[in-house]
Amino acid sequence: MSGSVYFHTYGCQMNERDGESAAAWLEESGFRIVEEEEEADVVIVNTCSVREKAEEKALGKLGLLAASKRRYPGRCVGVMGCMAQRLGERLLERFKGLDFVIGTSRLHRLAEVIRCVQEGGGPVVEVGEAEEERPELEPFRKPVHPIAFVNILYGCNRRCSYCIVPSVRGKERSRLAKAILAEITERVLKGVRDVTLLGQDVMAYGRSAAVWGDDTAFFSSRFREPFPRLLEAVSRIPDLWRVRFTSGHPSGCTDELAWAIAELPPVCEHLHMPLQSASDRILRRMRRGYTVEAYREAVTRLRAAVPNLALTTDVIVGFPGETENDFEATRAFMDEMGFDNAFIFKYSARPGTPAAAWGETVSEEEKQRRNQVLLADQNRRSQAIHDRLIGQTLEVLVEGPSLRNAERWSGRTRTNKIVVFPNPGRVQIGDRVLVRIERAMPQTLYGEVAQNE
Q1: I want to staple 355 with a disulfide (CB 3.0 to 4.6 A). Which of 54, 99, 162, 296 is the partner?
Q2: DSSP class of residue 175?
Q3: What is the mean pLDDT of the chain?
């Protein structure tokens, strides 16, 4: 048996990539991926555990799907991803209509698990250890747009006091460079032009393991550090126009990395580097591994090499012990850094982390206030940055019709800014076009196509 499959994906870019890999493995096994839940014989909830809100959304959806089996008695309902890794069999106890639970390291067995359920062998739990090795070459579906995410590193060794990732993704493991290059090369041959290299601590790539194998191409590199070496190798792939990476850490912002961003043409002038707090006391409690001054020095080093670098970040408000002075220090530092964009999160305790044992010291109302203050600050900063782009002509990689208005199209600049424009009729998905910016909002730029590149 096989059938049609629909995915509900929650969480980060790694979850999106896991969902893509899972879908490709299923297609290779004879399943059909559909775009509407009502058409599906199998519905899979691809879950995140990093933040409580994402987990609550996934749990709510699982409850609805379990209850809906009265209307769809033959439907198979399963859960995969970080929450599946964390909760395992407990999900079967909570949701009686659930057919399978599969963890982060067993996704390549998804087709076998579904068929086992379809043949009457369920419910099935396939979790295993989070750091189990996944297949080096993960499949992907034919892209429908020119942007792709590629895992280069799984897991994390940092053990921040609030973070559940090491528990659900395991210890840090770098993929072999040869496998990464083979995957990206195949994607480019199928139309991908913009690749984001993914890792929880992406700049740590290759530090704890040999990743070059017997590939002599890496031994002629201009760079000594593993991650800049990989950036150089990826940049050599023909017809790959843009290379990005996330998420960054100040400890990885070396002179070599700055040199790589400045000198390798495909590497984009954009870095996402979580700050989380600009209070040294809170950073120590978070176990982030840097001080405010170290973060400042990292940014200064990068901007000296890449003056037009766009910098985005993550910030947590309401962490246990955060005072008003700590919050105001973060607010002032964000202004100093001039972030192009910032994602602000209200702290939520994750089970099993050290911070969860400390209890809440900031009320939900105060978390909400701090969240809104930082969002308002960021909107002001983003608007000012975008206003300076009015009248400029920017290179935009076309992604397709805008989600909000199909009569307009959208794409991204090298600095990861969203640009919306009318399609003059000659523009195709995957084109690079020059767009003259005429209007700006905090999250979006608007303009007219000047010419095709």
Answers
A1: 162
A2: P
A3: 90
